[in-house]
Amino acid sequence: MNIISGLISKECWTRAEGGQCYLEEDDITVLAQHTKPVLDKRTVLVLLELQNYYFSGGCFELDNINYSAK
């Protein structure tokens, strides 16, 4: 099992011919690697960043994204 704690500071998705999307570039900083799930930690920070590829015409279009973005 490969579980990490870390930061994703960059993602660059590209749409190829035929419409398939692929991750062209990313930057992930690993702060810690765990061999088993960390069960004694109860605090989590979740950041949700709505990027262009979730909207109409993007690689990962989501239903009702305009409503969610309000």
Write up what this structure looks like:
By secondary structure, the protein is mostly beta strands. The protein has one domain (3-68). It has one helix and two strands, in the order ββα. The chain has one helix at residues 65-68, and strands spanning 3-15, 21-34. The protein has a two-stranded antiparallel sheet with strand order 1-2. The longest helix has 4 residues, at 65-68. The chain is extended and about 40 Å long. The termini are far apart. 0% of the residues are buried. The mean pLDDT is 80.
Radius of gyration: 16 Å
Mean pLDDT: 80
- Give the class from helix and strand content and strand pairing: mainly beta
Task: Give start-end ranges of low-pLDDT stretches.
Answer: none
Briefly summarize what is shown.
The protein has one helix at residues 65-68, and strands at 3-15, 21-34.
